Structures are given as structure tokens and as C-alpha cells.
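Take a minute with the sequence and C-alpha cells given here and flag any C-alpha cell that looks odd. Thanks in advance.
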Amino acid sequence: MSQTAFNAALLDPTADRPVGLSDSQGRPAGKRFDVYRNNVTVSLREALETGFPATARLLGEQNFNAIATGYLRANPPSSPLMMLYGGGFPRYIAAIPALAKLAYLRDVARLEYALRQSYHAEDAPALDPAKLATMAPEKLNNARLTFAPATQLVLTEWPIHAIRAKALGETDENPPGVAQPTLVTRPEFDPILTPLPADQAALLADLMRDKTLAEASTLHPGADLGQLLGTLLASMALTDIHVEDT
């Protein structure tokens, strides 16, 4: 019996039990395999629910269990380290025709996964604000920012910050009718979420693509660069600023 055949049967309840599987007494272990198969499915489904709690509440228990089961059978873990399992779950949700009217679900799930990525990212020393404050304007224009590994940005057309908060019972207020692209940072032990104005989020996205401050500001002239930099420094989202000579 190959490991591939065993793994395939493990997550597919319609698959035949692996040939040659026996217990310690040499007896066929079919029923024990069924129990083990069910336990693995339940454990992976619970891991997805733990990783995507707001998404689970928005879908409801029955719907989430069915969708999560479909996902885990199509996308078994590729690593024994489960803390980042489910990276493809947002895309999986978006591809389900029955959920087309709930287009925000994918981005809520993306936000929840970004939180996990931030939480498990490696530590890095924060940029000293004095370094930026003392730079001459002409130097600052040609500077590029280096972001902490824990810094994540979720671009979206939906008010995902408020949708997530309401789903988790953190607020009773209805989500606003504007987009809430969200910055995820980890200034201390736990990640924090900061919704950004759309123009600042677009500016930040270009800065994270390694554009200089001048290049990004030119692309987004209406965005408040000073306010954005203040947000990034306060949340320890930056580790360095590199100045390029022209």
C-alpha cells in the first residue's frame, strides 16, 4: 500500500479502504480506518473554522461545514504545520456559484488569513522614526520603504473590517457603505487591524511593491502620504528606509 493511496482514501469517504491495511493483530482494520478518516476530516474542518471564524459565522454552521469539507478534500495539508493551513480557502469560496451574491466573503476570508500570516511572521526591529524625520526632502523622495514581515495589506471593495467585527460580535453597528482596505500590523504580540482610506491603501500597495515615495505619490496625488507614514510608524510596520542617489 503506497502513501499516496492511503492519503487519497483518507480524505475521500467514497474511496475504498486501502488494501492490506491491518491492525496490530493482523486483522483487517477497515472500521478503524473509517473512524480515523472521520477524525481527520473533523480535525481539518475545525482547523479551518478556527482560522476563519468570521467567515464561518457569516456562512452559518451547516454551510461552512459543507464548504470546508469540500475544500479540505480537494486541498489536503501540504505540511504538518497547520497554523497557515487554508491559504487557498478565499479563492475556493469565490469560485462557488451559490455564493456569488456574497462577494465580500472572499475578502473577509483574505483578511482573516492575513491576520494569521501576521501573527506567525518572524520578528523584526522597527524603524526608528528619527531616521525618517531627519532626512532631507530630496533624499526622502528617492527613498524606498522596507516592511516588517508581519505587515499585510488587504485591498478590497467591501467594508471587510466592519463586516468581520460585526460577525464576531465585536460591534453592533452595521458596516458602512464604503470600501475598507485594511492594514494588518503586529506592533506587539497580537496583530491589529487598521482600515485605510482607499487612496492611502492604493498608495501603500505601490510602496509595498518597492516604488519610491516620489513614484508612489505621483501615482496617487490625492493620498495623504504624511498621514500614511504616521500610521505605519505608529504600528511598527516598517523596519528600514533606503535612500537611493539620483
Q: What stands out?
A: The radius of gyration is 23 Å. The chain has a mean pLDDT of 88. The chain has two domains: 1-101, 122-245.
